[in-house]
Structure formats: structure tokens, C-alpha cells
Amino acid sequence: MADPKGFLKITERQSAPSRQIEVRIKDWKEVVERADQATVANQASRCMDCGIAFCHHGCPLGNLIPEWNDLVWRDNGKEAIERLHATNNFPEFTGKLCPAPCESSCVLGINQPAVTIKQIELSIIEQAFDRGWVGINAPERMTGKTVAVIGSGPAGLAAAQQLTRAGHTVAVYEKDDRIGGLLRYGIPDFKMEKFHIDRRIEQMEAEGTRFRTGISVGEEISWDEIYRRYDAVLLATGADKPKDLSVPGRELDGIHFAMPYLTQANKTVAGDLIDGQVSAEGKHVVILGGGDTGADCLGTATRQGALSVTTLAIGQKPPSERPANQPWPMDANLFEIASAHEEFGERKYLASTVEFVGENGKLTGLRVAETEIVDGIRRPKVGTETVLPADLVLLSLGFTGPRSEIRINNELVAREHNGALSREDNYTTNIDGVFVAGDAGRGASLIVWAIAEGRAAAAEIDAFLEGQTVLPKPIKPSDRGISA
After folding, report:
1. Pick from 140-154, 304-318, 366-380: least confident
2. In this structure, is residue 50 part of a structural domain?
3. Domain contains 342
């Protein structure tokens, strides 16, 4: 184990430094800098090697956290990355983007700041890439079976890598021009620069995974053709259908969904020219929705040169400390300050949008009121209305499942009431040989759940094709985690 008295010697939590605000808002490079290796080792020494490591249960991947904490403390990075890769295909993605439910369930967090698990994870993979410890794991034999993975987000990529390594011929279909899904076009570079994706794609191609970009299945190629061509199909399309807001004035020019706005910005950063790009430059911006996507919009608008940015949330401001109804080890809903919130903008809570207002068809503002709860329903409170000036409104209200219907052999893939694709605990749909993983079946969720589901679905597909599997199956679709 790590230093048995480490948590007594080092009681402070020390995170990786961030670049200065006045510098970082002038570019799109990552905000968080690398942590010093000595600091990381000291933080790893705080791991208590608990008799029951609740961090395992808090992590959908079942990461071997105490083991690699100990290895980092002992300066054995090569074995640490082996332990980390045993459960997580892409620790650099989770190390940068996961909200770390493992830390919420850290036993040390009962009476001290939790171990910096996410930071330690990231340092392990960064060191591994630096020292050439991330190799090619090509299959020793080919099975002769073929699999189509539809969607190249974290679930699709994790499944594709696992299935390729199991010896199947895997083709990943992506509707966009580059691989990565929301990792590439939904996550701004100031959170994760895209070379992290590119080097993983190079690794996967060297292992044998094939990528087909710019192909929207159902349009450029039919679902029936995909079904005939491959022995199994995995639907990992994500949940890209956005929730809308039906209030008067919705038709005004200047109101846009968050994800297309972020996609355009990411493509511009990548060097693409976008006709009619939506930009926040010189505008008063209002973001509806206080989640991670809203924060990404805020950081993007700041870098584009917005005059002001106001984020509105219909609910109450979350507490700073654990509420009684979310005790440890649950993943509590707490007030968080993202890097974008540190940089610019104002946040308002209990704010209900009543109407979008404008002149000559163009948005000029929105009428908002305080939120009150009547019979369990959130409603605008009469007599509290004010008008916020706005040239650009970004709707970041969540998602309702995959955008398009999927019909194979004249049969629709079934859906749940929330719009997600239906599946059993072995990730199968109502159509034989068609599986679902990630947000497409789970609903919009965390990157760590997507990777975990991709790995688990790969094991089920391997068993379907071969009659058995040695691939790990970390979770079932019915698993909801400690936070449920």
C-alpha cells in the first residue's frame, strides 16, 4: 500500500495548477497545466488502502485506484499504467473530463479532502506517453467475424478497441469529418486539446481498427446494408437530440442550441472555415442551463470576445457542503466552479424564461422571472419579471436521446420513454445482433460511464460472436452507480 501514515502527514489536497486567467482567455490551449510529479506522489501517498475501497464502487470502470496510487508513490509508473489500462482504455480522456465520482466516494473524504484520484490518473498516462509505455496491442489471431460500430465517441471507441484486440474486424462509422464524436466537437480545446484523440486513433489504426468518416448511417449507407454486411452492430451514436424551450419568441434570430455552437467553434479552432458561424464576439450572451455544456459555452463565448455572459438555471443554487439526503459515499450534487466560471460571466439561479423578445425578427433580450415551486412543479412567479438584454441565447437544457429513428429490416429499434434506445442487461436490442452502448441507451451521462459501457458491450458482442469471451464486463445497463 501507499505510505500507511501518508494521510496523517499530508492533510492538504493539492491540485494541478491552472494558467493565469488573463493569459488563457486569449487562446484555446488547455487551462490546467501538468502537475509536478513529486506533488502527485505526495497526493498518492494519502490513499488509505481501505479495507473496502469505495472508490472502486464510485467508478463505473472499477479502476484499481489503491493499486496504482501505491505504484505512483513508489515511482513505478510502468506498472501503474498497466493497472490503469487494465480497466480504462483512455485514462487521458477521463483524467481531463470526468467529474470523478470516485473522489466523492473516497473514504478519506469523510473527514479530509479526498485523494486527488483524477489528477493521479492523468499523471500516470501522461508519463506513459512521454516514456513510450503506450504500445500497440494487436490481436494474435483473427476470428473472421466483423463488427460495425456506429459512432466514434468514448463508448464507440472503447468498444472498437476491445473488439479489435479480441480479433474481430471492426469498422467505426462517424457522420462527422473527424473521429471523436463529442470528445472532438463537443469538448472545447481549453478542456482537452485534440492531439489526445489523434494519438489514440493512430494506436487503434495500428492495432487494426478501421475508421469511416463522413458517413451518416441511414443516409449515405442504409441501416439494412450495415446489418447485412456485418456479423454484429453496435449503436454508440450518443444522445444528440437537444431539449428545446417552447416559449413565445422562440422563432427569433439569435437563439441556438449549445452543441452546434460548440461544434462550430471547435471546427474553427481546428482550422476549418465555417460559413455563417455563430459567434459571441461583441454580443450579450445568455446561456440557459447550468451544467457542464453550459460552462463549455461560457468559456467559448469568453474566448470569442462576448461583451457579457449570463448563465441562467431554473433550479436552486446547489449547496457547497454535502446535504443530509446525499451522504457519503454518494456522488453529491454540489456547487461547482468550472474554469470558465472563474474567467468571466454571471450565474443566476431560480430563473425561469418567460419569453424571448426582439425587434424586426432579431433577438434583443429575454423576459425572466423568479422560479417558484407549486405542487412540485417549477413555474415563473408572477410579478417578478425582468428583461435581460441578449443578442445571443444558447440553449443548454440537456438531451432526449438519439436524433434519428433506426429501422432495420422494417423494424424500429425500440426506445424507452425518455427517448433512449431500449436494451437488455447484455446490451442487446429487440433486433438480433444489434447492441447499444453509451448515451444512446443510457441517456446523456458521464464519459466514464460511456467507456465502461463500451467495454462491457464489447464483451457481450464477443460472446455473441464466439460463444464465450475473456473480455471484462464491468457494468450492466441496469447499474446506476452510487449516485442513484
Report:
1. 366-380
2. yes
3. yes
